[in-house]
């Protein structure tokens, strides 16, 4: 939910680059999970930098008394076009609650950065899930098997024998069942 909010902020400034990043990234992951990953990390860093600048701007805009924190009151004042409606104050309270990750009742830059990092984490997980889907065995849902690994690698233009695939899996097979679960796959990809 917060992530959509970020996009909205970016959209205000008509930042086309951001949209392209997403498209490119999605495409690359599909074509070649491995190569796409390194570039994706670089892009993510760039995006983080951009997002941080956006947040600093947002902070400056809302933080009227300059104490580095947006109070519900400051937020309400800037969203003033709807001021006076009781429901707005409720919305503002909810918004602060959502953005205030350390729970001190104010929205600070740290809160926003932390939320951004969480959103990035979630996105990484989604990417991993997508990648796992591709390697997933259609007969053994939820696992990568030597067979499914071989199939996927050959689709990527790397032909490996079943024996090689077995030993690749063995390397990251934490519970020794000869299969890669999503958890084991995640550990492997985080390496
Ligand atoms: Ca303030
Ligand atoms: Ca806070
Ligand atoms: Ca396993």
TrEMBL record:
Superkingdom, natural source: Eukaryota
Domain EF-hand: 50-85, 87-122, 160-191
InterPro entries given in the database record: EF-hand-dom_pair, EF_Hand_1_Ca_BS, EF_hand_dom, EF_hand_pair_protein_CML-like
Compositional bias segments (type: Basic and acidic residues): 22-43
Any Pfam family matching the protein: EF-hand_1
Region Disordered, annotated ranges: 1-43
SUPFAM superfamilies in UniProt: EF-hand
Keywords: Calcium, Metal-binding, Repeat
MF terms (GO), sorted A to Z: calcium ion binding
Name of the protein this chain belongs to: EF-hand domain-containing protein
Organism: Vigna angularis var. angularis
Lineage: Eukaryota, Viridiplantae, Streptophyta, Embryophyta, Tracheophyta
């Amino acid at each position: 939910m917060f992530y959509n909010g970020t996009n909205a902020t970016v959209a205000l400034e008509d930042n086309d680059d951001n949209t392209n990043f997403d498209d490119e990234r999605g495409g690359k992951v599909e074509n070649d999970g491995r190569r796409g990953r390194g570039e994706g990390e670089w892009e993510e860093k760039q995006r983080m930098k951009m997002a941080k600048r956006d947040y600093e701007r947002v902070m400056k805009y809302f933080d009227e008394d300059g104490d580095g924190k947006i109070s519900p009151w400051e937020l309400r004042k800037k969203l003033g076009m709807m001021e006076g409606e009781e429901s707005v104050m409720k919305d503002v309270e909810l918004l602060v609650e959502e953005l205030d990750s350390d729970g001190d009742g104010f929205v600070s830059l740290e809160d926003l950065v932390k939320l951004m990092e969480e959103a990035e984490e979630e996105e990484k997980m989604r990417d991993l899930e997508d990648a796992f889907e591709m390697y997933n065995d259609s007969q053994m849902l939820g696992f990568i098997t030597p067979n499914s690994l071989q199939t996927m690698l050959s689709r990527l233009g790397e032909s490996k024998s079943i024996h090689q695939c077995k030993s690749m899996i063995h390397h990251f097979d934490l519970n020794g069942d000869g299969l890669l679960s999503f958890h084991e796959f995640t550990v492997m990809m985080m390496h």
